[in-house]
Each structure stands twice: as C-alpha cells, then as structure tokens.
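Recall from the previous chapter that SMILES is a line notation for molecules. Here it describes zinc ion.
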Amino acid sequence: MCGIASFTFRCQAPNREHLIVNVHRFGVRHRIVKGNPMESCAHIEAVSTVTPAKHHECEECVKIGSNWVHLRTCQTCGVTLCCDSSRNRHATKHARATSHPVIASAEPGERWLYCYPDDAFVEY
Ligand SMILES: [Zn+2]
Ligand SMILES: [Zn+2]
Ligand SMILES: [Zn+2]
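With both inputs in hand, we obtain:
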C-alpha cells in the first residue's frame, strides 16, 4: 500500500464515493475522497500552487542505491520521495520527521494531494 495504510489511489482505489467540496484553487473542483468533506483541511487549502517533482526519482533511495514504486513530492520543501508501496517509505518517514503535512503525487497523470495529519485526499 502507498501513503497511509488505507489511502492510495493507484495501489488501492478509494472505495468511498467522491464528494465534491470546494471549487476554487487549481481552477478545478476539489474532490475529497477520504476525510470529512465538511471540514476542509487547512494544510491543503494553504497550497496555492502544486510543487512538481524536480527529478523523477526518490532522493533518499538514490543515496542508498535502493529503488521505489511510486513517487510523492513534499509540498512544504519540494523533496521527492517514495510511497509506502516502496520498501523504504521515504515520503511517510519524511512527513513524520519534519511535520511537513502535504504531499502530491509525482506520478505522471496523477493529480492529487494528500494531508497526513488530516488524512485528507484531494484531487485537483
Ligand atoms: Zn491538513
Ligand atoms: Zn525512497
Ligand atoms: Zn518536506
């Protein structure tokens, strides 16, 4: 599984129906797949522009010569790290170690944000 255990998009399709929440940032509808749709997540709300991956690789895995499954980009500092399907789970470790709350998928064609503290998942 990727991300937090029960969350994932590619690895495990969300089984809850998409709930349309807000129409404003990113020019499209936010759809909260997980979390309480009536309570918006301040962390994701604070992201005005999604930071893309600088390099399509996990910086930490590259350092140790490991590999990864999917990539996520921290929206606080811009580091790109691997998801929880990857053996090193660097994105989650980074979020826990730094309290950087929001990651974006760095996978081509995937447009979503995930907030760790709120367990909120938003497509954009
Ligand atoms: Zn949040
Ligand atoms: Zn990694
Ligand atoms: Zn970060």
